[in-house]
């Protein structure tokens, strides 16, 4: 094996055992040859990481906001991102970390890079919706999706610090984690930004001053990250550390200053109904306590309004359920006049991305085909 320029921190451990770069090469081949699908993903990443012929890592987006895309990210920028996480979250060497995310997407891969770079004691386990069910020892740090967090509430005492990403954290979930000793942060980021570039504490010591979570502080930038907005009101991200040029997103935000913002929703999800712009994500937050099934707000073309606001719910068709839901939504006092859906549709099974997010676009396409 050629000597790799990407060194392994001397304190690094994988599943409790110290490994250097040469030894990790052997581990990687073993994972690929004999391991399960998750271990094979880890093995493939390790081989790519230590291959000095390639200065980049191939990453694929999940496709939750459009067609999946492929990016080639410089390894040095991934290391820079790991160092920024260290400063922001104070994750020193010998941090005992749990990896329960797939290793073929940015979140899982950055857990590996952080461990290798910062000298963590990393334990990797098969990604599931209940990641802490088999855990009976204490960890310093873990990254989860909102779904994984929701299924781990009774066992969060095993982890001191958790970052949550890959989807919006509901207000109801925010309420459930108040008062817990575990420090839980919601992170903002994407493949293009090499994981998170901002974070905010979801369960501050002082607690929340309102029941719907609106008292949460804004997202705060990682070190050497600057935010702005374009003429649409969408977030722009600048950083010499991880970006070659300013990244323009499709995320509508309320910018507080160059280091802080509140996230409002995706501009490609905004519904323009009768000349009034409505944010589906805002409607979803207001309805989440009424609807226990998976759902989302969207629109269909309308001759008079341009776009007609609709609600799509993952549920078998039932006229009784539909009638009760219509009544509950109509009676929801937090919805503004233009936020009340004109129609509600039931679909037995939504389309999902490989990372478990609702694929709104594909689900809506399937609904449109059924209505045609």
From TrEMBL:
Residues 61-199 form the AMP-dependent synthetase/ligase domain. GO terms for molecular function: acid-thiol ligase activity. The keyword Ligase applies. Keywords: Ligase. InterPro entries: AMP-bd_C_sf, AMP-dep_synth/lig_dom, ANL_N_sf, ATP-dep_AMP-bd_enzyme. PANTHER family: LONG-CHAIN-FATTY-ACID--COA LIGASE, NONRIBOSOMAL PEPTIDE SYNTHASE PES1 (EUROFUNG)-RELATED. This is O-succinylbenzoic acid--CoA ligase. It comes from Psychroflexus halocasei.
